[in-house]
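Module 6 notes. Inverse folding takes a fixed backbone as the condition and produces residue identities as the prediction. Think of it as a translation problem where the source language is geometry and the target language is the twenty amino acids. Below is one complete input and output pair. Work through it position by position during the lab.
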């Protein structure tokens, strides 16, 4: 005789037994809702910045005219609120446009699944800062590692052996294993140095070398950059890293290395495109931006001289 426990049905079996095929099919459909913005939270440690630049203003106008065409992606949290996985720019555009809700697709994902989807969806952006890539790569690899996939990250910036998880990212983004590791190293930089990388003042290879310096040493480098108006070359960064490994990297050593003469010692003035273009008429080609800015500065300098002359009378 069969025992009673042999006939125990799972909850899933009971659900399937007492639901119609139509109900089961409907449960599998994507759920799209207009969710109140006040119920949608940012993704924790979201690495991508939402910039209110010209592209954002164009998105706002598009939202005003046609609404949100592609739904954002969210997952519901235990407290009933929602966590935004993809669509931070669309949500901000709705806020600026004065819309109270955001069209969203609600998905059922674990924390690590959500991290991977968040990174994948945002890599479709046309412009991604080095700092954004750095933290996105780090978050995704850590999530894949927690899911049971080996990542095997080593400390070598050139000869590193990344796992199959980094191979997947390589196929999607075109960045090599070594380049992925270099980006992740940038997360060890102090904010001031990382911002200089984003601005293009410090190149990738010297930035990677600087990432191995202790925080106090990195801040000494920041001070010397401000004093000398020059960033370290790749060779200088390598020497500072070597000095640290030998226990000889003092503030005085950093000062001596950073004060050395080198080609192109003086830093170029960096103007962020999103800040400059908002003041330039759209009919001015990008190739003529420098001429336009110089002429504008000439007029402003003339205005300041005239005002100074009036004030001195």
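Target side of the pair, the amino acids:
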């Amino acid at each position: 005789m069969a025992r009673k426990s042999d006939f125990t049905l799972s909850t899933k079996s009971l659900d399937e037994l007492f639901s119609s095929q139509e109900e089961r099919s409907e449960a599998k459909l994507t759920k799209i809702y207009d969710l109140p913005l006040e119920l949608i939270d940012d993704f924790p440690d979201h690495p991508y910045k939402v910039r209110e630049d010209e592209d954002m203003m164009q998105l706002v106008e598009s939202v005003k005219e046609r609404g949100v065409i592609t739904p954002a992606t969210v997952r519901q949290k235990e407290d009933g609120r929602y966590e935004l996985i993809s669509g931070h720019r669309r949500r901000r555009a709705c806020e600026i446009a004065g819309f109270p809700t955001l069209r969203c697709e609600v998905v059922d994902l674990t924390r690590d699944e959500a991290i991977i989807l968040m990174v994948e969806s945002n890599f479709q952006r046309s412009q991604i800062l080095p700092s954004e890539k750095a933290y996105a790569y780090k978050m995704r690899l850590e999530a894949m590692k927690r899911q049971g996939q080996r990542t095997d990250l080593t400390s070598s910036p050139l000869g590193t052996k990344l796992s199959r998880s980094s191979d997947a990212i390589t196929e999607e983004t075109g960045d090599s294993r070594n380049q992925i590791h270099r980006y992740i190293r940038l997360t060890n930089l102090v904010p001031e140095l990382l911002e200089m990388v984003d601005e293009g003042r410090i190149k990738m290879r010297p930035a990677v070398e600087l990432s191995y310096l202790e925080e106090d040493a990195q801040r000494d480098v920041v001070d010397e950059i401000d004093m000398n108006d020059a960033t370290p070359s790749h060779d200088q960064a390598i020497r500072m890293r070597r000095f640290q490994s030998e226990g000889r990297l003092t503030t005085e050593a950093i000062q001596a290395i950073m004060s050395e003469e080198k080609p192109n010692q003086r830093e170029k003035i960096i103007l962020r495109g999103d800040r400059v273009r908002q003041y330039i008429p759209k009919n001015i080609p990008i190739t003529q931006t420098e001429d336009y800015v110089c002429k504008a500065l000439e007029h402003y300098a003339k205005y300041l001289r005239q005002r100074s002359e009036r004030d001195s009378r």
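Reference fact for the lab report: Confidence is low (pLDDT under 50) at residues 1-14, 150-162.
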